[in-house]
Amino acid sequence: MSKPSGRVPLVLASASPRRIDLLRQIGLEPAAIDPADIDETPGRDELPPRLAERLAEAKARAVAGRHPGCFVLAADTVVACGRRALPKAEDVATARRCLDLLSGRRHRVLGGVCLIGPDGRVGRRLVTTTVTFKRLTAEETAAYLDSGEWHGKAGGYAIQGRAARFVRALSGSYSNVVGLPLYETASLLDGQGN
Ligand SMILES: Cc1cn([C@H]2C[C@H](O)[C@@H](COP(=O)(O)OP(=O)(O)OP(=O)(O)O)O2)c(=O)[nH]c1=O
What we know:
Layout: E1 10-12, H1 17-25, E2 32-33, H2 48-64, E3 71-81, E4 84-85, H3 92-102, E5 106-116, E6 122-133, H4 138-147, E7 167-171, H5 174-178, H6 182-189
Parallel strand pairs: 1-2, 1-3
Antiparallel strand pairs: 3-4, 3-5, 5-6, 6-7
Bound molecules: thymidine-5'-triphosphate.
Family: Belongs to the Maf family. YhdE subfamily.
Organism: Phaeospirillum tilakii
GO molecular function: hydrolase activity
């Protein structure tokens, strides 16, 4: 696989502003941003790591056909409490349920990344970050729900915002929690260990 930093343009298959910012943070400017519109419903009995891997690949594949001769990069972030994948919070009741589950506990953030090359070769990474939340008081939960920062976020929180004050400990990739594990993404793009 040749390197996307060379002559071959890179397409980011994502609607997430976080992913675009993260890519730019490591000096990569996508030639195009083309979000994939796929069904993200978990399969029956599908475990969170498999879900993150499968959705990242489905997003990349959905977009690759539209960009011949390009690298296409996609990712998916799943917040998991035990064997259970938490939803992306689209309403306040869902966000509250997520925060109640995460309060005072350790959870995993699974990041799937998929890169499809111009020759059709598929590279994949699965990254796990462990995050421990403090026990949230009723006031902390209420204030966070009021902030609206949970909207559209897996597990109902955004570590890059106010929820940072809830994080007692983190083990693994921080950028993975925000939406794109940068070390592993760079290694995929470099074509190493593919
Ligand atoms: C846990 C967590 C998630 N998130 C975000 C990252 C992702 O945007 C989102 C998880 O949903 P995803 O389905 O991974 O991504 P998306 O729908 O936002 O974008 P696309 O599929 O087009 O690439 O949650 C944060 O921004 N901060 C956090 O701390």
